[in-house]
């Protein structure tokens, strides 16, 4: 059976379609009676530990944290505050706003014996399925938000507080009031800022293929066992963070934070059989907690750089509370009612470091290194069976005793020259070498149908950057 999703193409990443509105891609459904596909999807994994992974990889997690640390997002708009920083400065800064969103339209047609139209995918192709599946639907996705906040600076105290109202109406009709506040205190004789924040979060389900997964017609995709279909409710969570920022000698800065996230109706995503067509699901709850620290040297003579460390533990609790479950997944949805399993972000140790040295006023070099302790996975085959499918080189990077990907370390080197610089105009030439040791990075391992992510081998890039 070949499924065609039609409409306007928005973004495709690897072999996984991200239907941000409507997308043009062909996917092939592997019937449940086939145990071995002719081809398998080689893009980033969507499924983790027999569950479903909507997140990326440890590198993406760390990059996300770094991007947060480089900006100060609005407490109400962005849903979070800058990690490891004071709440802010200023006095009596108030803000308010109103947000509204989009319309969702999804269309699918599946027809038999059409493997020729599947040109570039890695999903298994079947030529002996005579079923036909057609689905088309559209409806408005109504999401409105009203928020008000205030930022107050009182002597050595900084307080940011606000209230946000969200309304969501697509498959369900729901709303939430979300108080959020953060407070920081500067201690002059310690040259330290202590801060605490609390956010109440209301996260609406992803609308990627949600009309299909919520329709009664989707049950016809697999009738081997009765399908389980539940509406996906918005996630609701309480986020806490406690930390401090301290300067040393006017040259160094240390950020340290502890955090905890308690989430009900924890959002994740599943996929239709063996295709890349994904849709939202939810589990009863999730708890994520951890700590992170960063040592930064903005400028010390000719040197600058940073070193960061993060520790995170994440667990998700059964049962499922929303989504579409077919075949074996439907059986698991009705039997796995207790217990918990690692979340896709449950990488315990992540270390990153980078040092830059200014050789001359317009010439610099930099060295960097990343260490990742490995994400969890849950094997459903033996190591020998996996080795047959993927090769021993890949499988040797999996620890089947701990059910985790083995740790990996990568290094990078950069050199840059400012060819021209005057006022706001500049020209810079930069060369980068990534993964110098050519280490095989098994970033994510989701299994045969769920996809696996491998990091790039040694690579070199050259850039000529002009600003004006």
Put simply, the count of helices is 5
Question: Which regions contain 5 or more consecutive residues with pLDDT less than 50?
Answer: 1-101, 111-129
* Overall strand count: 28
Helix/strand-derived category reads mainly beta
Instruction: Write down the overall geometry.
Output: globular
Overall number of structural domains: 2
- Overall pLDDT level: 76
Helix content: under 10%
Give the termini separation. Answer: 53 Å
Largest sheet: 16 strands, antiparallel
Radius of gyration, in angstroms, nearest whole number: 25 Å
Relative strand content: over 45%
Description:
It is built from five helices and 28 strands. The protein has 468 residues and is mainly beta. The protein has two domains: 52-105 and 136-346, no CATH class; 359-468, no CATH class. It has a 16-stranded antiparallel beta sheet that branches. Strands 4-1-8-9 form a four-stranded antiparallel beta sheet, with no helix packed on it. A hairpin with a 3-residue loop joins β15 and β16 (252-271). The longest helix is centred in the first third of the chain and has 12 residues, at 58-69. The chain is globular and about 70 Å long. 32% of the residues are buried.
């Amino acid at each position: 059976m070949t499924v065609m999703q039609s409409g306007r193409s928005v973004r495709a990443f690897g072999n996984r379609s991200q239907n941000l509105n409507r997308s043009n891609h062909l996917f092939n459904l592997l019937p449940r009676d086939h145990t071995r596909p002719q081809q398998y999807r080689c893009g980033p994994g969507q499924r983790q530990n027999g569950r479903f992974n909507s997140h990326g990889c440890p590198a993406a997690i760390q990059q996300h944290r770094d991007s947060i640390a480089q900006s100060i997002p609005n407490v109400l708009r962005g849903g979070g505050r800058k990690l490891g920083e004071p709440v802010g400065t200023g006095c009596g800064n108030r803000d308010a706003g109103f947000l509204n969103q989009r319309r969702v339209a999804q269309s699918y047609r599946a027809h038999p014996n059409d493997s020729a139209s599947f040109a570039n995918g890695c999903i298994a192709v079947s030529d002996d399925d005579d079923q036909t599946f057609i689905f088309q639907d559209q409806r408005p996705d109504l999401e409105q938000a009203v928020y008000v906040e205030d930022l107050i600076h009182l002597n050595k105290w900084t307080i940011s507080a606000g209230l946000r109202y969200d309304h969501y109406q697509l498959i369900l009709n729901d709303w939430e009031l979300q108080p959020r506040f953060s407070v920081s205190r500067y201690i002059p004789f310690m040259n330290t800022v202590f801060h605490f924040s609390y956010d109440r979060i209301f996260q609406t389900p992803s609308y990627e293929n949600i009309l299909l997964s919520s329709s009664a017609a989707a049950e016809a995709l697999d009738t081997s066992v009765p399908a389980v279909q539940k509406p996906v409710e918005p996630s609701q969570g309480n986020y806490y963070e406690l930390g401090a920022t301290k300067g040393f000698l006017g040259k160094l800065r240390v950020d340290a934070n502890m955090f905890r996230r308690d989430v009900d109706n924890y959002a994740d995503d599943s996929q239709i059989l063996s295709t890349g067509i994904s849709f939202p699901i939810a589990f009863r709850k999730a708890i994520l907690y951890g700590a992170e620290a960063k040592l930064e040297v903005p400028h010390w003579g000719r040197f600058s750089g940073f070193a960061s460390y993060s520790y995170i533990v994440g667990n998700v609790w059964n049962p499922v509370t929303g989504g579409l479950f077919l075949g074996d997944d439907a059986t698991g949805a009705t039997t796995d009612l207790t217990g918990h399993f690692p979340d896709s972000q449950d990488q315990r140790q992540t270390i990153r470091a980078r040092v830059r040295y200014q050789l001359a006023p317009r010439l610099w070099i930099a060295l960097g290194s990343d260490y990742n302790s490995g994400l969890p996975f849950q094997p459903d085959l033996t190591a020998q069976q996996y080795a047959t499918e993927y090769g021993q080189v890949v499988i040797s990077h999996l620890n089947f005793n701990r059910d985790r990907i083995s740790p990996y370390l990568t290094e990078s080197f950069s050199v840059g020259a400012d060819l021209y610089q005057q006022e706001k105009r500049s020209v810079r030439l930069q060369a980068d070498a990534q993964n110098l040791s050519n280490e095989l990075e098994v970033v994510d391992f989701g299994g045969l149908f769920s996809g696996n992510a491998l990091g790039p081998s040694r690579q070199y890039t050259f850039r000529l950057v002009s600003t004006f």
